[in-house]
């Protein structure tokens, strides 16, 4: 197997503090494959080139033409049958891959436009089979804010195109190995109740066996209702100081109570994410590092504990000039696809921070909250009570709220 990595990705792997986590992958990058290459049948000029290239690459100083030559040598003499790469990298080295690749397997295909797959396969004429793995219920390809009425079907994701055409064999993958069964069952109604939770609850017990007070001890879920409003920023993004403060305060307590720093904060809005990053840097010790990302940037990834910050609050209706009716403005936060991505990133524990009354306007959130009705919704006073110490069952009940 060969993994084609960018220079920056190789640097991350090289500098990784957790060596065990990357050890299994270190033998697969191009430099590693060339270092272990049997050069018996390699031409003399190429024999000299290989060690020079490896040194340059290790020093992060190789150039494009050297990359292509190195890849061609690895493919010609390395006995490589499996190549892992991003679509962009595969396009970059299509000339070297031509004639070598016969099967194209695309993971997270929902994030790749049909036109991009068509362009790639046009440059790889020996491809005989294409396998697309993706979720049509999650976020589609990024369109830079351009209306999909304009960009479709060019930017439509490949799984959606395949589903519409009905000419491609489709296999439903129903077994979910990522999340605690409770979290899988919470989104199962959105998938016509076809999902089967395969993870052992005892292997996803960071929340349920911790000292973190939960309104339902068997459910690794906290639903925290925040009534304070959001604000539009100069960059046209949005922020919600109350929700952001709540997330940061939880980051101060959850690691100790749950004995883990494997916590990611996911945000619906970029400005919200930037504010939380700044607060973490200012208020938490330097050795407490947490990932903070937007939901859109995190699709395809997972974390043991996810704190989701949704930002938005109910909007005032505005007068629609064409119809003269009062209508609610379009709400990015009520996207069902974005909701499904955000609900399915956590393995062992999920905290939802938001105006749940507002979120219920989306079919996805209404379905999720109905499926998790055994988990009482709490007010934002929850974090204040954590600061005070032990929270009794009676105290938890006192901060329950209806939405």
UniProtKB/TrEMBL annotation:
<dbReference type="GO" id="GO:0016787">
    <property type="term" value="F:hydrolase activity"/>
</dbReference>
<dbReference type="InterPro" id="IPR047187">
    <property type="entry name" value="SF1_C_Upf1"/>
</dbReference>
<keyword id="KW-0347">Helicase</keyword>
<dbReference type="InterPro" id="IPR041679">
    <property type="entry name" value="DNA2/NAM7-like_C"/>
</dbReference>
<protein>
    <recommendedName>
        <fullName>DNA2/NAM7 helicase-like C-terminal domain-containing protein</fullName>
    </recommendedName>
</protein>
<dbReference type="GO" id="GO:0005524">
    <property type="term" value="F:ATP binding"/>
</dbReference>
<feature type="domain" description="DNA2/NAM7 helicase-like C-terminal">
    <location>
        <begin position="167"/>
        <end position="355"/>
    </location>
</feature>
<dbReference type="GO" id="GO:0043139">
    <property type="term" value="F:5'-3' DNA helicase activity"/>
</dbReference>
<dbReference type="InterPro" id="IPR041677">
    <property type="entry name" value="DNA2/NAM7_AAA_11"/>
</dbReference>
<keyword id="KW-0378">Hydrolase</keyword>
<dbReference type="Pfam" id="PF13087">
    <property type="entry name" value="AAA_12"/>
</dbReference>
<dbReference type="Pfam" id="PF13086">
    <property type="entry name" value="AAA_11"/>
</dbReference>
<feature type="domain" description="DNA2/NAM7 helicase helicase">
    <location>
        <begin position="33"/>
        <end position="141"/>
    </location>
</feature>
<keyword id="KW-0067">ATP-binding</keyword>
<comment type="similarity">
    <text>Belongs to the DNA2/NAM7 helicase family.</text>
</comment>
<dbReference type="InterPro" id="IPR050534">
    <property type="entry name" value="Coronavir_polyprotein_1ab"/>
</dbReference>
<dbReference type="InterPro" id="IPR027417">
    <property type="entry name" value="P-loop_NTPase"/>
</dbReference>
<keyword id="KW-0547">Nucleotide-binding</keyword>
